[in-house]
Amino acid sequence: MRNHYNMNQTSLSISTEFLPAAGHEARYINDLVDAMQYEDLYITGRPREYDLRAMMKLVLFAYLRGRTTCWLIEREARENIYARWLTQENVPSYRTIARFIISDKAEQLIQSSFETMRGFLVDHDLIDDCVFIYGTKILANANKYSFVWRKNIIRFDTLNCEKAKALIEEIKTTETNALIQSLPLDYDQLDLTVAQLEKRVAQLEAEIAATPKVSPNPAKQARRHTKSQFHEVRRVRDKRNEYAADMEVFGQRNSFSKTDHDATFMRVKEDPMLNGQLKPGYNLQIATNNQFVFDYQLFWNPTDTRTLIPFVQTLETYGALGRYLIADAGYGSESNYRYLADERPEQTVLIPYGTMLKENSRKWRTDDRKVMNWDYHAKDDYYLDPQGVRFNFQRYVTRTDKYSFSRQFHRYLAETMTENQQRIVPAFTKGSRARYIDINPDWEYFKAQERDQLSDDTGASIYAVARLMLNQFLVISRLIYTSLDSR
């Protein structure tokens, strides 16, 4: 018997009984949010109309489907049967969704999700025991011409200091007041100079008021000149304070944006003019596996080398580190290798260094200028270059970079004379100086360790699979970003 289809007939309002299929993303979102740990203490005020967990499930599901605006999220909650199952038939308004997204409770739930997400994904066999770290630049919502450069501020501050000293000396030569004559020539004490000049102006105004009939009145001329000096010193003082505030904003950076002090000017991948123009942005670091992002963090460092250690520390705090830590060659530095070897010895690090692929090329292996192609004699500790020049150990050299990281080098000096006291011409540079080379044993050790781990069948396969998953993740991310930008 065929059912009669009539939408206008009288019906009883009953919630639709629905359960997503096993393996659907709505099921995973539901289990993940229910596993989050948070405290929702109700003290006073109007009680919440919607449960925070239901709101978080709705937002995560909508974001997963590419719905990022509050209007579209509300529409998803109204029309999508999976979203209605997550909210149990509740449809919050776009205003409620917007208030929830920017609330402190939402941030607490997100932070809690980072702590439990990796364990949840492992329990459901959605990821393996690997963590791939990737960094990319994102543009800040700031004017691209609102840059402030550290070198310019330092130069302007130096010029302003010289101007202040010259101005104070000029004031001392033109003023006969004892207080003015005792002013210090100190750039940091311009507030005292401004206060003394203000007192001097008030004193001259009192003299003018006491002698109203004197004409021409010398006090008026002195007041006019002192006021001009007072305004000039105050402008110099204000510039000094402005430059000092800018230096505090810089921190360890070399630039920031006037409209977004947290943004740093850096090169980004979007360069339509192909001129390497610096734009305000952030260095976004993500930890991912199988297209799942465990954690993210924003940095002002334009290079990825300086971001690995603090990001790994954050991942360790949330318990999101696996057995294998994988990243590209942009993270391969001695400081990062040393930190991971000392602080994370239980992890297998699969991070190639910058010249690893080039060293396997024929051009690199046939280059006589590369020390790795020279003969090394460990017994007597000397190098022999292709021209037959012997480099003997001379001394230890320590170099410290601007980030206070020290590197230990072994310096080898070329033998300049033969046994018959004949000059060895290839042992000298074009400037007639003896050649020498600096070898960093720690750096060579870490390079050899990474070559062995990435050449191993297990390490090579893990790194290849991780790179493939990352490329798929980047393709999907670009498609989402393009669709959102077009709106």
Automatic annotation (TrEMBL):
- Which positions fall inside the Transposase IS4-like domain? 258-378
What are the Transposase InsH N-terminal domain coordinates in residue numbering? 17-101
The protein's matches in InterPro entries, at most eight in alphabetical order, are given as: Transposase_11, Transposase_InsH_N
This protein's name:
Transposase
